[in-house]
Automatic annotation (TrEMBL):
Entry keywords, A to Z: Membrane, Transmembrane, Transmembrane helix
Protein name: Dolichyl-phosphate-mannose-protein mannosyltransferase
Transmembrane segments: 114-132, 139-156, 168-185, 192-208, 214-229, 236-257, 296-314, 323-341, 347-367, 376-393
Highest taxon listed in the record's lineage: Bacteria
Amino acid sequence: MNLIHYLTGNAALSLLCIITLFKASGAEQTPFKKSDGFFLGPASIFLVLIKMATFDSGMLNIDESIMLSGGRTLALDPRAWISVDPTTSGPLNFLPSIILIKLADWSSYGELRIIYTLVFQIPTVFILFLTFKRVSNSAFARIVIIPLILTIGFFYFPDLIHASSENFPMLFLSIMLSALILISFGYEVKRYHLIIAGIACASAFYVKLQVTPIFIYLAAACFILLFFVKKNRRDGMLFLASFIFTHLLALLIIWLYGGFYDFVQSYIIGNLRYTTVNMITAELVTTFLKSSIRSLLPLLLLGFLIPGIFLIVIRKSLTSIDLLYHAGFILTIIVTIYCIIKPGRYFLHYTLLLVVPLYSYMVWLLIKYEWKPSKLLVPLASLAIAFVFFINAKSATRMVENEKQYLSDIINQKLVEKLYAGRVPGDRMAVWGWGSYYNHAARLVMGTRDVHFDFQTSYKSDLGKYYRDRYLSDLEKNHPRWFLDLSLPGGLLTNEDCKLIHFPEINNFVKENYHEVYKTNTEVLYQKNSDERSK
């Protein structure tokens, strides 16, 4: 991480937020106060500047290389589950990398992270800001959007910064919760907004299977509010129709190109099996809570206001509709937490899923109970921003000083040079292991649809046989020019059971059709015997 870029960007963002607090609470009408662009424009620029801190840092998470190598392959053959199996992610998550590779073949991790900021994070901020502005006013919206902007800007752990599959759902959550907030306050939701919300709810299933319960719940909540509570049956049916039609269209497309069987076997059955491998434990929940509090520290700026809001709630008599809305938001947060911990393994980037639901409920409370900024808000909030910046800067500096090597440092450059020499666009390489970073570094198309070998080696049942048979079938069909074995002891995420020799059918195919051309302690590269290029 370039610490100067990171600290400069966050210092500028913090200063902008403090200035915004003073301007939003003042009575003087200035261009800064009249135009939201004077706030949102610089905030967006500073968020991009902060992401530039890791532009040259290489791969921060192996998922980034999966996105890029999978994106290159899908750009040639867009049939998800036929050309690329997205495993626990979904095919829509590869759209940014597909577009990026199409625009510039040399694009890499830094560009991908910038795209994620521009396409997912900044639009999330804009959508929620415009929603709060509509139900309140511009000054209020600028004040309450500050914690969200700082939360995104203050991320410094590589696992939160990398181009993770949680960014797309964040955008969809903002679209969906924006509609629900407008409905809850009696505002008309434009028809196009309802259609987009229905499409977003359905599309989330094809972005990341893990978030499906969240969006099914939100879709049901939106339909119930429109159809039964607000008695707006036409809008309710419009939303439901867009949700159902999107699903039917997606499933029809998958069925037409012949991917339905693999879609069911891998995306549904395989991923459900993935969620049952590890059980939810107290240690897992504790780790999640500690990591989330540490990662979402700027949201505590809003959290300090919530106890006072609840005192107001206690004094007032709650109507049944109020209880319904409270229960709805709280249940959204509970379902989100369930989806985060259900896989039985916790990765810090899962916390991104919690940002929008938690933040939206906190701001909804402020609007619902007519919170007004006091005279002490500006100095206290400014001190809080300065304090959080100091803590964040100190933690980020400590992390950089003790920083371990980036994952990209595990790449053997001699191997990359050998693969790249004589490369012809369209050449394929199959990998036995976690080696998508080699496909990306050498700009090679995937030789099989598998982005890793986890399911082939860890599933011992009929499901594991399905993955192994499919892997062998892809080798026979695609005839990749290269085969890279990364299952040797000491390799990334390998163990004795993963060795290629323990899978005789695949091993025999490699021995019969390939010859060894390069070997190290952790890597063996094979080249196809014939001169025939990859199919």
